[in-house]
Specification:
By secondary structure, this protein is α+β, with helices and mostly antiparallel strands. The protein is 35% helix and 25% strand.
């Protein structure tokens, strides 16, 4: 029986002004094992381990399986009978790219089982097609911090340098926020001044990440396209932000669609920022898993077993 194991990192997207185009891979992972099983009674068997295992669907609607079969259909092939074993490490519906890990994992697993007929660029196209936007799936596949510019069949992917002294800290609350709900509150049009505001800060963000400049980051992490509208969906957002910055964070943003909040700081302030974010939510009787991470530089990895 052919078998492959795919490990995919979590991601944080938008990072303030980079709405739907910038994202970074983090050292938090989901792992997917695909085993062809031609003698099985069923076409699909899914087993899941992890703290939220009970929430993963075990049928054909599972996003991992949909991505897996999508690649076979793209190649005009019939997907094999498959057993998928999932080890969850990325929280669901928290703004850390759990759906992107499923899409990338399914595509990469299928491509490996059929002896890699598709290039990474072609897998990126399929992943963006399924997800609808590139900001999570691209860094999940490639690692590092990535900027994606273009449109279907014409993407330019640009790696953004991330200075080693910039430490990402995620605060993951014990409540969810769906991407659909977070997108529903966004306006359909924006004032020109708001667009200019974001364009300027996007340029500054790229330079600040590369240079490790905390003063620049403090200004660059603000935006007027999505966070002003989404922060009302996240209880305690402004209080947590205030406390994180007081404790030494350069700034704080919504990770992806939320509700996870991302602070960036220097190595000396890690513990104080972690404590401040956790305590701020605790004062509102909200439990949060707060941890410092690093930028994953490898991206998704597939290994034939």
């Amino acid at each position: 029986m052919s078998s492959v194991t795919v490990t995919v990192p979590a991601t944080t997207a938008n990072i303030g002004p980079g709405f739907d185009c910038i994202g970074a891979a983090l050292t938090l992972y989901n792992q997917f094992n695909f085993t062809e099983n031609p003698e099985a009674d069923n076409d699909l068997t899914i087993t899941v381990t992890g703290s939220e295992a009970h929430r993963i669907k075990g049928d054909r609607s599972n996003l991992i399986y949909r991505a897996f079969t999508h690649l076979y259909h793209h190649l005009n092939k019939t997907a094999p009978k498959i057993a998928i074993d999932i080890k969850l490490g990325v929280p669901l519906a928290r703004g850390l790219g759990s759906s992107a890990t499923a899409i990338v994992g399914g595509l990469l697993g299928a491509n490996t089982l059929v002896n890699q007929p598709l290039s990474i660029a072609e897998i990126i196209e399929l992943a963006i097609e399924i997800e609808g936007h590139p900001d999570n799936v691209v860094p999940a596949l490639l690692g590092n911090c990535q900027l994606s510019v273009g449109e279907p069949k014409n993407w330019e992917i640009c790696q953004i340098p991330w200075h080693s002294d910039i430490i990402p800290i995620v605060a993951i609350p014990n409540f969810e926020l769906s991407t659909e709900e977070a997108r529903a509150v966004l306006p359909k049009t924006l004032p020109r001044a708001d667009a200019i505001y974001n364009v300027a800060r996007m340029g500054l963000l790229i330079r600040a990440l590369a240079m490790g400049d905390g003063k620049w980051l403090n200004k660059a992490m603000t935006d007027k396209i999505h966070q002003p509208y989404r922060k009302g969906l996240i209880e305690g957002y402004e209080f947590v932000q205030e406390q994180a910055i007081k404790a030494g964070a350069y700034g704080m943003v919504i990770s992806g669609a939320g509700p996870t909040l991302l602070s960036l700081t220097n190595p000396e302030q890690i513990q104080s920022v972690e404590k401040a974010m956790k305590n701020a939510w605790a004062q509102l009787e909200i439990t949060a898993d707060v941890r410092s991470l690093a930028i994953d530089t490898q991206g998704a990895k597939a290994k034939s077993n």
